[in-house]
Amino acid sequence: MIDKYINKIIQGDCLEVIRKIPDNSIDMTFADPPFNLKKKYNGYRDNKDFTEYLTWCKDWIFEMVRITKPTGSIFVHNIPKWLTYYAGFLNEIADFKHWIAWDAPTAPMGKSLQPNHYGILYYAKSCRENKFYEIRYCHKRCRKCKVLLKDYGGKKDGLHPFGPLVSDSWTDIHRIKHNKYRDEHPCQLPIHLLERLILMVTDENDIVLDPFIGTGTTAIAAKKLGRRYVGIDIDPTYVSTTKEHLEKTMVDSKANDVWVSFYLGEIVTVRNKDWEKVKDCFAIPEPIKEIEYQKISKNRQLSELFNH
Ligand SMILES: C[S@@+](CC[C@H](N)C(=O)[O-])C[C@H]1O[C@@H](n2cnc3c(N)ncnc32)[C@H](O)[C@@H]1O
User: Fold this and answer.
1) Is the pLDDT of residue 308 over 50?
2) Are residues 87 and 76 in the same domain?
3) Among candidate residues 231, 249, 267, the one where a domain is terminated
């Protein structure tokens, strides 16, 4: 039964734990494994042999797919090098949806191009049955004057007042830079990154599982959005930190009774279908005002043309 795992953070080896979880029982699985880059974790040694690392990854990827429901989604975050192998494993057992390029500069790696994105592989357990919601992110604006930063080629009149539909290239979410926002963990992800994924493929009360929970990002995002969670980590210190965070986390990521994602007090991700319900919570900055939005509504074709 899945019930005994619900809203639990489990200390242990993810393969041992996940093998006990029933088939087709989880709505969304998300994994952010160690990247095998000799990162300094509290206990885990991040330096497996090449083949050993990939064999291990193949094992937990297989388990993630097994426990995901037919309507569910599987996400794996890593550097492109490892994702090329992951895609090979996943193509055999699930349906490819997207390679999301998360624009985030990484450390130089010697004689190579400067790495500028991490990848998040998005697979459906079954493409035909996959639950998916279109989502929007807010326009990038100058912090002071609120002018749009992107040049839309003179077509700004046709823009959605909140922002474009999210594509497979994410440039608006940054890694956590300031120590005051970080835990003692070398690779903590931003909560609103996970909130965006969760809003995209789950509904309220759905179950989100992360086999490498670290200091809790996925579970915190799930809880804030009214979803249920299961988190696993081998390190007891990270497990305690996660539990402490979760105790303080409120189920509160709502505007006008609609689940949305906030960052620094502002809505940053909203489901397309929910926009009408939340739009009065969003102060449309100059130069896009309500009157322009009405213009767009009258001309849906134009609007759709620029919703990219
Ligand atoms: C990249 S970090 C995850 C960070 C997490 N996404 C966050 O935002 O905090 C990888 C995590 O995997 C954990 N880990 C390593 N081997 C594991 C295993 N066999 N089972 C479960 N967790 C493991 C490490 O302790 C580490 O916290």
Assistant:
1) no
2) yes
3) 249
